[in-house]
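Lab channel / #folding
Pinned by the channel admin:
"Please post every new chain as: sequence first, then the structure tokens as a reply. Keep commentary short and put observations after the output so the thread stays searchable."

First post following the new format, from NK:
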Amino acid sequence: MLEMGSHHQLSRIMRPDDANIVGNVHGGTILKMIEEAGGIISTRHCNSLPGDRCVAALARVERTDFLHPMFIGEVAHVSAEITYTSRHSVEVQVNVLSENILTGAKKVTNKATLWYVPFCLQNVGKIIEVPPIEYSNPEQEEEGKKRYAAQKLDRLETKERNGDAIMPVLNPDRQTKEAYTVAFSQSSLIHLVGPSDCTLHSYVHGGVTMKLMDEVAGIVAARHCKTNIVTASVDAINFHRKIKIGCVVSVSGRMTFTSNKSMEIEVIVDADPLVDAEKGKFRAVTAFFTYISLDKEGKPLAIPPLKLENEEEHKRFEEGKARYLQNKAKRLAEKERQQ
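Reply from TO:
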């Protein structure tokens, strides 16, 4: 049995090709590094005992907050730690620290929790048993069990909602759409999965998918506000099925809710195999991204209210409002606990 607290750290300098169009480090780049650190530590752990060799695939990313922006020229330190294991899954907690190597200033920019499931290399349909870890006290194991049960329940609820579809917007005539409506800002990206997107075993890196999702969400937010926008947080990202090389992925986003200073965008990833076309299109990933709008000084701007045009949009707006209020209450409770 391995001791809790197995660590892994990645460090690299942020270069110009890591930037978004405003010049900060792209939120999708940070999500990609988080997933890379989590994938390394969980795959290493799952292969720590004799038996079938396996690779840990990303199953879920819990809510991730973007606490501070990261800038080009800074060094990102991404540290990952295994905090819970069930029979078939691994929980990894990741912290991201930015370092200005000219001044020595450091700040925590992101915190995330990821869940991985190990798949056998010889038979990807087979899930491998995870080696247990040793907890420093019974309370830690109990807390881990609660987190595991909560994410399992949420994944089941998300699967039930997965019948909902967003048709990819390939050539939208925005001239005919009213500004600030869902239809006006709705956007899509179509991407053919190539070797550079994949693990050594020809399945897409979770981080690659998350970066595409963040790009689409950013396009939706920018079209709605027409200002500088940044990722504030990502609600749980659920990976329902693995995407193989040669698939065409449609990444579609639509505005679901706006508050005075934030906007929620739903992003759905559907995959369509080109070679095994008889398998048909399938829902691969779903998530909700929250963005804020900033002025030239980096201060939050008011968000134009979303104009709702039908009953379905009203329903999604109310669901988004419930998530917004729930997250706000959690943040306040966390703040009080720290005081």
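NK: The mean pLDDT is 91.
TO: also worth noting, The chain has five helices and 14 strands.
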